[in-house]
Amino acid sequence: MPIIKVDHLYKRFGETDAVRDISFEVEQGTIFGFLGPNGAGKTTTISILCTLLSPTYGKASIHGYDCTEQSAEVRKSIGIVFQDSTLDKDLTAYENLMFHAYLYDVKKAEMRQRIDEALRFVDLYERRDDLVKKFSGGMKRRLEVARGLIHRPKVLFLDEPTIGLDPQTRAHLWDFIVDLPKKHKVTVFMTTHYMEEAEVCDRIAIIDHGRIITVGTPEELKKTMGGDVIFIGTSDNARAKDEIEKLFGVEVFEKEGELFLTSARGDACIPEIIRALGDMVLSVKLQRPTLNDVFLKMTGRAIRAEELSSGDTFKDEVRSYRRKFGRG
Amino acid sequence: MVEANAIYVLVAREFKKFVRERSRLISTLARPLIWLFLVGGGMSRLVSPGMGVFSPGRGISYIQFIFPGILGMTILFSAIFSSISIIWDKEFGLMKEILVAPVSRFSIVLGKALSGTLVSAIQAAIILALFPFLGIKLSVLSVMEVVVICILLSFCIAALGIVIATFYESFESFSVIMNFVVMPMFFLSGAMYPVRTLPQILKVITRLNPFTYGIDALKHAIFRGTDILDFSLVTDLGVLLGTSAVFVVIAALMFERKK
Ligand SMILES: Nc1ncnc2c1ncn2[C@@H]1O[C@H](COP(=O)(O)OP(=O)(O)OP(=O)(O)O)[C@@H](O)[C@H]1O
Ligand SMILES: [Mg+2]
Known about the structure:
The structure holds 2 protein chains of 2 kinds. Chain A contains 12 helices and 14 strands.
Protein backbone atom coordinates (compact mmCIF):
# COMPACT_ATOMS: atom_id res chain seq x y z
CA MET A 1 0.00 0.00 0.00
CA PRO A 2 1.46 3.38 -0.92
CA ILE A 3 1.98 5.64 2.10
CA ILE A 4 2.90 8.75 0.12
CA LYS A 5 0.82 9.73 -2.89
CA VAL A 6 1.65 12.72 -5.04
CA ASP A 7 -0.74 13.56 -7.84
CA HIS A 8 0.03 16.19 -10.50
CA LEU A 9 1.76 18.48 -8.04
CA TYR A 10 2.68 21.94 -9.25
CA LYS A 11 4.38 24.76 -7.36
CA ARG A 12 5.12 28.21 -8.69
CA PHE A 13 7.06 30.94 -6.87
CA GLY A 14 6.38 34.18 -8.71
CA GLU A 15 8.06 33.60 -12.05
CA THR A 16 9.79 30.35 -11.09
CA ASP A 17 8.14 27.01 -11.64
CA ALA A 18 9.86 25.03 -8.93
CA VAL A 19 7.81 21.83 -9.33
CA ARG A 20 5.99 21.11 -12.59
CA ASP A 21 3.33 18.49 -12.51
CA ILE A 22 4.96 15.60 -10.71
CA SER A 23 3.22 12.39 -9.69
CA PHE A 24 4.60 9.40 -7.82
CA GLU A 25 3.83 6.95 -5.03
CA VAL A 26 5.99 5.55 -2.27
CA GLU A 27 5.32 2.12 -0.78
CA GLN A 28 5.28 1.66 2.97
CA GLY A 29 8.53 0.48 4.51
CA THR A 30 10.77 1.38 1.58
CA ILE A 31 13.48 3.94 0.96
CA PHE A 32 12.52 6.33 -1.80
CA GLY A 33 15.09 8.70 -3.27
CA PHE A 34 14.78 11.98 -5.08
CA LEU A 35 17.87 12.46 -7.18
CA GLY A 36 18.50 15.75 -8.91
CA PRO A 37 20.83 18.71 -9.25
CA ASN A 38 20.60 22.06 -7.41
CA GLY A 39 17.30 23.82 -7.93
CA ALA A 40 15.56 20.71 -9.28
CA GLY A 41 12.64 21.13 -6.88
CA LYS A 42 13.50 18.49 -4.29
CA THR A 43 13.21 20.68 -1.21
CA THR A 44 10.07 22.34 -2.57
CA THR A 45 8.40 18.93 -2.93
CA ILE A 46 9.38 17.96 0.61
CA SER A 47 8.11 21.28 1.97
CA ILE A 48 4.72 20.63 0.39
CA LEU A 49 4.61 17.08 1.72
CA CYS A 50 5.45 18.21 5.24
CA THR A 51 2.81 20.98 5.13
CA LEU A 52 5.13 23.99 5.18
CA LEU A 53 4.13 25.09 1.68
CA SER A 54 0.85 24.73 -0.15
CA PRO A 55 0.90 23.54 -3.75
CA THR A 56 -0.18 25.82 -6.60
CA TYR A 57 -2.19 22.88 -7.92
CA GLY A 58 -2.24 19.17 -7.42
CA LYS A 59 -2.61 16.90 -4.43
CA ALA A 60 -0.32 15.16 -2.03
CA SER A 61 -1.23 12.83 0.78
CA ILE A 62 0.60 10.93 3.49
CA HIS A 63 -0.87 7.91 5.22
CA GLY A 64 -4.20 8.81 3.65
CA TYR A 65 -4.23 12.39 4.99
CA ASP A 66 -4.26 15.29 2.58
CA CYS A 67 -1.20 17.50 3.01
CA THR A 68 -3.15 20.73 2.56
CA GLU A 69 -6.49 19.94 4.17
CA GLN A 70 -5.42 17.70 7.04
CA SER A 71 -2.08 19.17 7.91
CA ALA A 72 -2.40 18.41 11.61
CA GLU A 73 -2.76 14.67 10.92
CA VAL A 74 0.06 14.75 8.40
CA ARG A 75 2.36 16.50 10.88
CA LYS A 76 1.71 13.76 13.41
CA SER A 77 2.75 11.08 10.92
CA ILE A 78 6.06 12.55 9.76
CA GLY A 79 9.56 13.30 10.95
CA ILE A 80 11.94 15.45 9.00
CA VAL A 81 15.62 16.29 8.76
CA PHE A 82 15.76 19.57 6.87
CA GLN A 83 18.48 20.44 4.40
CA ASP A 84 19.72 23.21 6.69
CA SER A 85 20.19 22.45 10.35
CA THR A 86 17.22 23.30 12.56
CA LEU A 87 18.75 22.52 15.93
CA ASP A 88 18.83 25.07 18.73
CA LYS A 89 22.56 25.58 19.11
CA ASP A 90 22.20 27.20 22.53
CA LEU A 91 20.63 24.08 23.99
CA THR A 92 22.29 20.76 24.73
CA ALA A 93 21.74 17.65 22.64
CA TYR A 94 19.47 16.27 25.33
CA GLU A 95 17.46 19.49 25.58
CA ASN A 96 16.97 19.61 21.83
CA LEU A 97 15.46 16.13 21.90
CA MET A 98 13.41 16.96 24.97
CA PHE A 99 12.04 20.04 23.20
CA HIS A 100 11.03 17.85 20.29
CA ALA A 101 9.45 15.20 22.53
CA TYR A 102 7.23 17.82 24.17
CA LEU A 103 6.20 19.31 20.85
CA TYR A 104 5.12 15.85 19.69
CA ASP A 105 3.37 14.98 22.94
CA VAL A 106 5.49 11.94 23.70
CA LYS A 107 4.29 10.34 26.95
CA LYS A 108 6.25 11.64 29.94
CA ALA A 109 6.92 8.12 31.17
CA GLU A 110 8.56 7.13 27.90
CA MET A 111 10.30 10.40 27.13
CA ARG A 112 13.58 9.82 28.93
CA GLN A 113 13.93 6.28 27.66
CA ARG A 114 13.21 7.21 24.05
CA ILE A 115 15.65 10.10 24.14
CA ASP A 116 18.41 7.95 25.64
CA GLU A 117 17.73 5.26 23.07
CA ALA A 118 17.86 7.77 20.21
CA LEU A 119 21.10 9.27 21.51
CA ARG A 120 22.69 5.83 21.76
CA PHE A 121 21.48 4.98 18.28
CA VAL A 122 23.50 7.87 16.82
CA ASP A 123 26.45 7.47 19.20
CA LEU A 124 25.90 10.75 20.96
CA TYR A 125 24.90 9.47 24.37
CA GLU A 126 28.21 10.49 25.91
CA ARG A 127 27.81 14.01 24.55
CA ARG A 128 24.19 14.48 25.58
CA ASP A 129 24.85 17.37 27.95
CA ASP A 130 27.07 19.36 25.57
CA LEU A 131 25.73 22.45 23.88
CA VAL A 132 24.98 21.75 20.23
CA LYS A 133 27.12 24.68 19.14
CA LYS A 134 30.14 22.65 20.23
CA PHE A 135 29.20 19.78 17.90
CA SER A 136 30.80 19.02 14.55
CA GLY A 137 28.69 19.02 11.38
CA GLY A 138 28.43 15.24 11.42
CA MET A 139 27.34 15.11 15.03
CA LYS A 140 24.66 17.72 14.39
CA ARG A 141 23.38 15.77 11.42
CA ARG A 142 23.20 12.57 13.44
CA LEU A 143 21.44 14.37 16.24
CA GLU A 144 18.85 15.64 13.78
CA VAL A 145 18.20 12.15 12.48
CA ALA A 146 17.78 10.95 16.06
CA ARG A 147 15.39 13.81 16.75
CA GLY A 148 13.31 12.98 13.69
CA LEU A 149 12.73 9.48 15.08
CA ILE A 150 11.81 10.33 18.69
CA HIS A 151 8.08 10.47 18.04
CA ARG A 152 8.10 7.27 15.91
CA PRO A 153 6.94 8.82 12.64
CA LYS A 154 5.46 6.74 9.83
CA VAL A 155 7.49 8.61 7.26
CA LEU A 156 10.92 10.16 7.74
CA PHE A 157 12.02 12.85 5.30
CA LEU A 158 15.73 13.35 4.88
CA ASP A 159 16.64 16.36 2.76
CA GLU A 160 20.28 15.80 1.78
CA PRO A 161 21.12 14.11 5.05
CA THR A 162 24.83 13.81 4.36
CA ILE A 163 25.50 17.28 3.05
CA GLY A 164 28.83 18.67 4.22
CA LEU A 165 29.97 15.45 5.86
CA ASP A 166 33.28 13.68 5.34
CA PRO A 167 33.17 10.34 3.49
CA GLN A 168 33.60 8.31 6.67
CA THR A 169 30.74 10.03 8.49
CA ARG A 170 28.62 9.77 5.38
CA ALA A 171 29.17 6.05 5.22
CA HIS A 172 28.35 5.71 8.91
CA LEU A 173 25.16 7.73 8.53
CA TRP A 174 24.09 5.61 5.55
CA ASP A 175 24.67 2.46 7.52
CA PHE A 176 21.90 3.34 9.87
CA ILE A 177 19.64 5.02 7.34
CA VAL A 178 19.40 1.75 5.43
CA ASP A 179 18.44 -0.01 8.66
CA LEU A 180 15.62 2.42 9.45
CA PRO A 181 12.76 0.69 7.62
CA LYS A 182 13.52 -2.57 9.40
CA LYS A 183 14.44 -1.27 12.84
CA HIS A 184 11.94 1.56 13.15
CA LYS A 185 9.21 0.51 10.70
CA VAL A 186 9.51 3.84 8.99
CA THR A 187 9.27 4.77 5.32
CA VAL A 188 12.18 6.94 4.26
CA PHE A 189 11.91 9.70 1.67
CA MET A 190 15.31 11.19 0.93
CA THR A 191 16.86 13.61 -1.50
CA THR A 192 20.43 13.74 -2.64
CA HIS A 193 22.64 14.77 -5.47
CA TYR A 194 25.19 12.11 -4.75
CA MET A 195 24.69 9.21 -7.14
CA GLU A 196 26.33 6.67 -4.84
CA GLU A 197 23.90 7.59 -2.09
CA ALA A 198 20.88 7.05 -4.28
CA GLU A 199 21.99 3.46 -4.82
CA VAL A 200 20.75 2.49 -1.34
CA CYS A 201 17.18 3.39 -2.28
CA ASP A 202 14.56 0.83 -3.14
CA ARG A 203 13.24 3.21 -5.75
CA ILE A 204 14.57 6.42 -7.21
CA ALA A 205 12.94 9.30 -9.04
CA ILE A 206 15.28 11.41 -11.10
CA ILE A 207 14.11 15.00 -11.03
CA ASP A 208 15.37 17.92 -13.06
CA HIS A 209 13.93 21.41 -13.60
CA GLY A 210 10.87 20.50 -11.54
CA ARG A 211 9.97 17.41 -13.60
CA ILE A 212 10.35 13.73 -12.84
CA ILE A 213 12.34 12.31 -15.70
CA THR A 214 12.21 8.68 -14.72
CA VAL A 215 11.31 6.45 -11.76
CA GLY A 216 12.52 2.94 -11.00
CA THR A 217 14.76 0.73 -8.90
CA PRO A 218 18.48 1.50 -9.22
CA GLU A 219 18.86 -1.72 -11.21
CA GLU A 220 16.04 -0.86 -13.60
CA LEU A 221 17.44 2.57 -14.21
CA LYS A 222 20.89 1.22 -14.88
CA LYS A 223 19.49 -1.37 -17.26
CA THR A 224 18.18 1.41 -19.44
CA MET A 225 21.82 2.24 -20.06
CA GLY A 226 22.20 -0.87 -22.24
CA GLY A 227 24.48 -2.78 -19.97
CA ASP A 228 28.05 -2.91 -18.80
CA VAL A 229 31.23 -1.75 -20.51
CA ILE A 230 34.15 -4.20 -20.80
CA PHE A 231 37.65 -2.85 -21.36
CA ILE A 232 40.26 -5.26 -22.72
CA GLY A 233 43.99 -4.73 -23.05
CA THR A 234 45.57 -7.10 -25.62
CA SER A 235 48.91 -7.71 -27.26
CA ASP A 236 47.31 -7.44 -30.74
CA ASN A 237 44.32 -5.13 -30.80
CA ALA A 238 43.48 -5.55 -34.50
CA ARG A 239 43.26 -9.35 -34.31
CA ALA A 240 41.47 -9.30 -30.96
CA LYS A 241 38.92 -6.83 -32.31
CA ASP A 242 38.07 -9.15 -35.20
CA GLU A 243 37.83 -12.16 -32.91
CA ILE A 244 35.44 -10.50 -30.49
CA GLU A 245 33.27 -9.02 -33.18
CA LYS A 246 32.96 -12.45 -34.75
CA LEU A 247 32.19 -14.03 -31.38
CA PHE A 248 29.49 -11.61 -30.12
CA GLY A 249 28.39 -9.84 -33.26
CA VAL A 250 28.79 -6.43 -31.62
CA GLU A 251 30.97 -3.53 -32.57
CA VAL A 252 34.22 -3.18 -30.62
CA PHE A 253 35.89 0.22 -30.22
CA GLU A 254 39.46 1.14 -29.53
CA LYS A 255 40.54 3.88 -27.19
CA GLU A 256 43.97 4.76 -25.79
CA GLY A 257 45.35 1.35 -26.71
CA GLU A 258 42.43 -0.52 -25.11
CA LEU A 259 39.42 -2.16 -26.69
CA PHE A 260 35.98 -1.73 -25.26
CA LEU A 261 32.47 -3.00 -25.93
CA THR A 262 29.10 -2.87 -24.20
CA SER A 263 27.12 -5.88 -23.12
CA ALA A 264 23.99 -6.52 -21.10
CA ARG A 265 25.77 -9.10 -18.93
CA GLY A 266 29.40 -8.03 -18.85
CA ASP A 267 30.39 -10.51 -16.16
CA ALA A 268 29.19 -13.46 -18.24
CA CYS A 269 31.03 -12.31 -21.37
CA ILE A 270 34.44 -12.09 -19.77
CA PRO A 271 35.18 -15.83 -19.58
CA GLU A 272 34.17 -16.29 -23.22
CA ILE A 273 36.39 -13.43 -24.30
CA ILE A 274 39.34 -14.85 -22.44
CA ARG A 275 38.73 -18.32 -23.89
CA ALA A 276 38.58 -16.91 -27.43
CA LEU A 277 41.59 -14.63 -27.16
CA GLY A 278 43.79 -16.84 -25.03
CA ASP A 279 47.24 -15.44 -24.38
CA MET A 280 46.50 -12.20 -26.23
CA VAL A 281 44.62 -10.83 -23.19
CA LEU A 282 46.73 -8.58 -20.96
CA SER A 283 43.98 -7.03 -18.82
CA VAL A 284 40.20 -7.02 -18.48
CA LYS A 285 38.13 -4.43 -16.69
CA LEU A 286 34.38 -4.40 -16.19
CA GLN A 287 32.52 -1.14 -15.68
CA ARG A 288 28.91 -1.14 -14.58
CA PRO A 289 26.77 1.88 -15.44
CA THR A 290 26.22 4.26 -12.55
CA LEU A 291 23.24 6.43 -11.78
CA ASN A 292 25.36 9.30 -12.93
CA ASP A 293 25.34 7.71 -16.38
CA VAL A 294 21.58 7.42 -16.18
CA PHE A 295 21.24 11.05 -15.23
CA LEU A 296 23.62 12.09 -17.96
CA LYS A 297 21.75 10.11 -20.53
CA MET A 298 18.37 11.46 -19.48
CA THR A 299 19.33 15.11 -19.20
CA GLY A 300 22.42 15.42 -21.36
CA ARG A 301 24.44 16.83 -18.47
CA ALA A 302 26.35 15.53 -15.52
CA ILE A 303 24.50 16.01 -12.27
CA ARG A 304 27.35 17.90 -10.70
CA ALA A 305 29.71 18.84 -13.48
CA GLU A 306 32.10 20.52 -11.10
CA GLU A 307 32.65 17.29 -9.23
CA LEU A 308 33.81 15.10 -12.08
CA SER A 309 37.33 14.07 -11.27
CA SER A 310 39.94 13.49 -13.96
CA GLY A 311 39.25 9.76 -13.66
CA ASP A 312 35.72 10.43 -14.81
CA THR A 313 36.73 12.24 -17.97
CA PHE A 314 37.50 9.03 -19.78
CA LYS A 315 34.16 7.56 -18.77
CA ASP A 316 32.59 10.70 -20.12
CA GLU A 317 34.17 10.18 -23.46
CA VAL A 318 32.84 6.66 -23.55
CA ARG A 319 29.42 8.05 -22.79
CA SER A 320 29.53 10.69 -25.45
CA TYR A 321 30.66 7.99 -27.83
CA ARG A 322 27.68 5.90 -26.85
CA ARG A 323 25.32 8.77 -27.25
CA LYS A 324 26.71 9.59 -30.66
CA PHE A 325 26.15 6.05 -31.77
CA GLY A 326 22.75 5.91 -30.17
CA ARG A 327 23.54 2.95 -27.97
CA GLY A 328 21.84 2.15 -24.70
CA MET B 1 -2.68 18.27 26.31
CA VAL B 2 -0.50 18.44 23.20
CA GLU B 3 -1.08 22.18 23.18
CA ALA B 4 -0.30 22.65 26.86
CA ASN B 5 2.91 20.65 26.45
CA ALA B 6 3.95 22.73 23.48
CA ILE B 7 3.28 26.01 25.28
CA TYR B 8 5.16 24.72 28.30
CA VAL B 9 8.22 23.67 26.32
CA LEU B 10 8.39 26.93 24.36
CA VAL B 11 8.40 28.88 27.61
CA ALA B 12 10.86 26.47 29.23
CA ARG B 13 13.26 26.87 26.32
CA GLU B 14 13.18 30.66 26.55
CA PHE B 15 13.64 30.55 30.31
CA LYS B 16 16.59 28.18 30.07
CA LYS B 17 18.30 30.41 27.56
CA PHE B 18 17.53 33.46 29.68
CA VAL B 19 19.16 31.90 32.72
CA ARG B 20 22.11 30.71 30.67
CA GLU B 21 22.84 34.03 29.01
CA ARG B 22 23.64 36.18 31.98
CA SER B 23 25.34 38.77 29.82
CA ARG B 24 22.03 39.39 28.08
CA LEU B 25 20.37 40.01 31.43
CA ILE B 26 23.07 42.48 32.46
CA SER B 27 22.89 44.40 29.22
CA THR B 28 19.11 44.61 29.21
CA LEU B 29 19.07 45.79 32.82
CA ALA B 30 21.83 48.32 32.16
CA ARG B 31 19.66 50.39 29.83
CA PRO B 32 16.85 51.22 32.29
CA LEU B 33 19.35 51.80 35.09
CA ILE B 34 21.32 54.26 32.98
CA TRP B 35 18.14 56.07 32.02
CA LEU B 36 16.85 56.16 35.53
CA PHE B 37 19.99 57.62 37.08
CA LEU B 38 21.54 59.63 34.26
CA VAL B 39 18.47 60.98 32.52
CA GLY B 40 16.30 60.99 35.62
CA GLY B 41 19.06 62.48 37.79
CA GLY B 42 20.11 65.03 35.19
CA MET B 43 16.64 66.17 34.24
CA SER B 44 15.56 66.52 37.86
CA ARG B 45 17.37 69.82 38.00
CA LEU B 46 15.52 71.14 34.93
CA VAL B 47 12.06 69.95 35.84
CA SER B 48 12.01 70.31 39.58
CA PRO B 49 8.57 70.31 41.17
CA GLY B 50 7.01 73.72 41.12
CA MET B 51 8.96 74.95 38.12
CA GLY B 52 5.79 74.93 36.13
CA VAL B 53 6.35 72.24 33.51
CA PHE B 54 4.03 70.01 35.45
CA SER B 55 3.01 69.90 39.04
CA PRO B 56 2.64 66.39 40.35
CA GLY B 57 0.36 66.95 43.29
CA ARG B 58 2.23 65.57 46.27
CA GLY B 59 5.70 66.80 45.32
CA ILE B 60 6.78 63.95 43.06
CA SER B 61 10.33 64.44 41.88
CA TYR B 62 11.21 63.88 38.23
CA ILE B 63 13.19 60.73 38.95
CA GLN B 64 10.15 59.38 40.78
CA PHE B 65 7.89 60.50 37.96
CA ILE B 66 9.81 58.51 35.35
CA PHE B 67 10.04 55.36 37.48
CA PRO B 68 6.89 53.80 35.95
CA GLY B 69 8.26 54.79 32.54
CA ILE B 70 11.55 53.05 33.30
CA LEU B 71 9.69 49.93 34.41
CA GLY B 72 7.79 50.17 31.13
CA MET B 73 11.05 50.63 29.22
CA THR B 74 12.46 47.47 30.76
CA ILE B 75 9.35 45.61 29.66
CA LEU B 76 9.20 47.18 26.22
CA PHE B 77 12.77 46.29 25.32
CA SER B 78 12.92 42.85 26.86
CA ALA B 79 9.52 41.69 25.61
CA ILE B 80 10.12 42.92 22.07
CA PHE B 81 13.60 41.45 22.09
CA SER B 82 12.31 38.10 23.27
CA SER B 83 9.60 38.00 20.61
CA ILE B 84 11.67 39.10 17.68
CA SER B 85 14.07 36.29 18.51
CA ILE B 86 11.54 34.50 16.29
CA ILE B 87 13.38 36.16 13.41
CA TRP B 88 16.59 34.52 14.66
CA ASP B 89 14.74 31.22 14.91
CA LYS B 90 13.62 31.61 11.30
CA GLU B 91 17.12 32.45 10.18
CA PHE B 92 18.68 29.52 12.07
CA GLY B 93 15.90 27.15 11.10
CA LEU B 94 14.44 26.22 14.48
CA MET B 95 11.16 27.85 13.47
CA LYS B 96 10.68 25.14 10.82
CA GLU B 97 11.09 22.46 13.47
CA ILE B 98 8.35 24.18 15.48
CA LEU B 99 6.07 24.69 12.47
CA VAL B 100 6.12 21.06 11.30
CA ALA B 101 5.17 19.89 14.78
CA PRO B 102 1.53 18.83 15.29
CA VAL B 103 0.76 21.91 17.35
CA SER B 104 -1.80 24.60 16.54
CA ARG B 105 -0.40 27.93 15.36
CA PHE B 106 -2.36 29.58 18.15
CA SER B 107 -0.42 27.63 20.77
CA ILE B 108 2.88 28.52 19.13
CA VAL B 109 1.99 32.21 19.35
CA LEU B 110 0.73 31.83 22.90
CA GLY B 111 3.87 29.93 23.93
CA LYS B 112 6.09 32.58 22.42
CA ALA B 113 4.11 35.44 23.97
CA LEU B 114 4.24 33.80 27.40
CA SER B 115 8.00 33.27 26.99
CA GLY B 116 8.43 36.99 26.42
CA THR B 117 6.09 37.74 29.30
CA LEU B 118 8.07 35.61 31.72
CA VAL B 119 11.54 36.97 30.99
CA SER B 120 10.31 40.52 30.71
CA ALA B 121 8.33 40.40 33.96
CA ILE B 122 11.38 39.00 35.77
CA GLN B 123 13.47 41.93 34.59
CA ALA B 124 10.76 44.42 35.49
CA ALA B 125 10.60 42.88 38.97
CA ILE B 126 14.34 43.45 39.40
CA ILE B 127 13.94 47.13 38.47
CA LEU B 128 10.85 47.41 40.65
CA ALA B 129 12.94 46.41 43.66
CA LEU B 130 14.69 49.80 43.39
CA PHE B 131 11.64 51.77 44.47
CA PRO B 132 12.67 52.27 48.13
CA PHE B 133 15.93 53.91 47.01
CA LEU B 134 14.01 56.52 45.04
CA GLY B 135 11.95 57.62 48.02
CA ILE B 136 8.78 56.02 46.67
CA LYS B 137 6.49 54.46 49.25
CA LEU B 138 4.45 51.44 48.15
CA SER B 139 2.25 49.13 50.18
CA VAL B 140 2.52 45.39 49.65
CA LEU B 141 -0.77 45.56 47.84
CA SER B 142 0.50 48.26 45.48
CA VAL B 143 3.63 46.21 44.74
CA MET B 144 1.41 43.27 43.81
CA GLU B 145 -0.71 45.55 41.69
CA VAL B 146 2.43 46.78 39.88
CA VAL B 147 3.56 43.21 39.28
CA VAL B 148 0.20 42.25 37.78
CA ILE B 149 0.26 45.27 35.48
CA CYS B 150 3.86 44.48 34.48
CA ILE B 151 2.74 40.98 33.49
CA LEU B 152 -0.20 42.29 31.43
CA LEU B 153 1.95 44.90 29.73
CA SER B 154 4.70 42.33 29.05
CA PHE B 155 2.21 40.02 27.41
CA CYS B 156 0.79 42.79 25.27
CA ILE B 157 4.23 43.95 24.08
CA ALA B 158 5.47 40.38 23.53
CA ALA B 159 2.39 39.66 21.40
CA LEU B 160 3.02 42.84 19.42
CA GLY B 161 6.64 41.72 18.98
CA ILE B 162 5.44 38.44 17.44
CA VAL B 163 3.22 40.29 15.00
CA ILE B 164 6.23 42.41 13.98
CA ALA B 165 8.46 39.34 13.70
CA THR B 166 6.08 37.66 11.27
CA PHE B 167 6.85 40.40 8.74
CA TYR B 168 10.61 39.83 8.73
CA GLU B 169 12.76 36.96 7.52
CA SER B 170 16.22 38.09 8.59
CA PHE B 171 17.64 40.04 11.47
CA GLU B 172 18.97 42.86 9.34
CA SER B 173 15.61 44.36 10.18
CA PHE B 174 16.54 44.54 13.85
CA SER B 175 17.66 48.19 13.79
CA VAL B 176 14.61 49.15 11.72
CA ILE B 177 12.37 47.70 14.40
CA MET B 178 14.33 49.44 17.15
CA ASN B 179 14.32 52.85 15.47
CA PHE B 180 10.87 52.90 13.94
CA VAL B 181 8.83 50.89 16.42
CA VAL B 182 10.40 50.64 19.83
CA MET B 183 11.84 54.14 20.17
CA PRO B 184 8.69 55.99 19.01
CA MET B 185 6.56 53.76 21.21
CA PHE B 186 8.69 54.67 24.17
CA PHE B 187 8.82 58.42 23.62
CA LEU B 188 5.17 58.77 22.62
CA SER B 189 3.82 57.13 25.73
CA GLY B 190 4.02 59.50 28.66
CA ALA B 191 6.95 57.52 30.05
CA MET B 192 9.30 60.50 30.15
CA TYR B 193 6.83 63.42 30.30
CA PRO B 194 3.13 63.80 31.01
CA VAL B 195 0.96 63.22 27.96
CA ARG B 196 -0.96 66.43 28.58
CA THR B 197 2.16 68.57 28.00
CA LEU B 198 2.47 67.25 24.43
CA PRO B 199 1.33 69.14 21.30
CA GLN B 200 -2.13 68.09 20.03
CA ILE B 201 -0.91 65.92 17.12
CA LEU B 202 1.48 63.94 19.33
CA LYS B 203 -1.24 63.59 21.93
CA VAL B 204 -3.39 61.80 19.36
CA ILE B 205 -0.57 59.43 18.43
CA THR B 206 0.08 58.77 22.10
CA ARG B 207 -3.51 57.69 22.53
CA LEU B 208 -3.11 55.13 19.75
CA ASN B 209 -0.08 53.60 21.44
CA PRO B 210 -1.00 50.67 23.68
CA PHE B 211 2.21 51.18 25.63
CA THR B 212 0.82 54.54 26.88
CA TYR B 213 -1.96 52.72 28.70
CA GLY B 214 0.51 50.35 30.33
CA ILE B 215 2.56 53.27 31.61
CA ASP B 216 -0.59 54.98 32.83
CA ALA B 217 -1.69 51.82 34.65
CA LEU B 218 1.70 51.65 36.36
CA LYS B 219 1.32 55.29 37.39
CA HIS B 220 -2.07 54.41 38.87
CA ALA B 221 -0.51 51.71 41.00
CA ILE B 222 2.53 53.76 42.02
CA PHE B 223 1.06 57.27 42.39
CA ARG B 224 -2.49 56.52 43.40
CA GLY B 225 -4.70 59.56 43.65
CA THR B 226 -2.31 62.13 42.18
CA ASP B 227 -3.19 64.31 39.22
CA ILE B 228 -0.56 62.94 36.81
CA LEU B 229 -2.86 60.17 35.55
CA ASP B 230 -4.22 60.43 32.03
CA PHE B 231 -6.88 57.71 31.85
CA SER B 232 -8.89 55.62 34.27
CA LEU B 233 -7.35 52.34 35.39
CA VAL B 234 -10.27 50.48 33.85
CA THR B 235 -9.54 52.07 30.48
CA ASP B 236 -5.87 51.18 30.83
CA LEU B 237 -6.50 47.54 31.64
CA GLY B 238 -9.23 47.27 29.02
CA VAL B 239 -6.90 48.57 26.31
CA LEU B 240 -4.06 46.26 27.40
CA LEU B 241 -6.25 43.18 27.39
CA GLY B 242 -8.04 44.13 24.18
CA THR B 243 -4.90 44.87 22.18
CA SER B 244 -3.22 41.72 23.54
CA ALA B 245 -6.06 39.61 22.21
CA VAL B 246 -5.96 41.37 18.84
CA PHE B 247 -2.19 40.91 18.53
CA VAL B 248 -2.38 37.20 19.40
CA VAL B 249 -5.12 36.61 16.83
CA ILE B 250 -3.26 38.53 14.11
CA ALA B 251 -0.03 36.68 14.88
CA ALA B 252 -1.79 33.30 14.79
CA LEU B 253 -3.38 34.15 11.44
CA MET B 254 -0.02 35.27 10.07
CA PHE B 255 1.53 31.98 11.19
CA GLU B 256 -1.28 29.99 9.65
CA ARG B 257 -0.73 31.60 6.27
CA LYS B 258 1.42 29.43 3.99
CA LYS B 259 3.34 30.53 0.97
N1 LIG C 1 10.72 30.41 -1.23
C1 LIG C 1 11.06 30.48 -2.51
N2 LIG C 1 10.80 31.59 -3.24
C2 LIG C 1 11.12 31.67 -4.53
N3 LIG C 1 11.72 30.70 -5.24
C3 LIG C 1 12.02 29.56 -4.58
C4 LIG C 1 11.71 29.40 -3.20
N4 LIG C 1 12.12 28.16 -2.82
C5 LIG C 1 12.66 27.60 -3.92
N5 LIG C 1 12.61 28.42 -4.98
C6 LIG C 1 13.06 28.13 -6.35
O1 LIG C 1 12.51 26.89 -6.73
C7 LIG C 1 13.44 26.11 -7.44
C8 LIG C 1 13.59 24.76 -6.76
O2 LIG C 1 14.19 24.92 -5.50
P1 LIG C 1 14.42 23.74 -4.47
O3 LIG C 1 14.94 24.34 -3.22
O4 LIG C 1 13.19 22.93 -4.38
O5 LIG C 1 15.56 22.91 -5.19
P2 LIG C 1 16.37 21.65 -4.67
O6 LIG C 1 16.13 20.55 -5.64
O7 LIG C 1 16.06 21.38 -3.25
O8 LIG C 1 17.86 22.16 -4.83
P3 LIG C 1 19.16 21.90 -3.91
O9 LIG C 1 19.76 20.64 -4.38
O10 LIG C 1 20.01 23.07 -4.23
O11 LIG C 1 18.71 21.89 -2.50
C9 LIG C 1 14.73 26.92 -7.49
O12 LIG C 1 14.78 27.55 -8.76
C10 LIG C 1 14.56 27.95 -6.41
O13 LIG C 1 15.20 29.14 -6.77
MG1 LIG D 1 17.12 21.37 -1.53
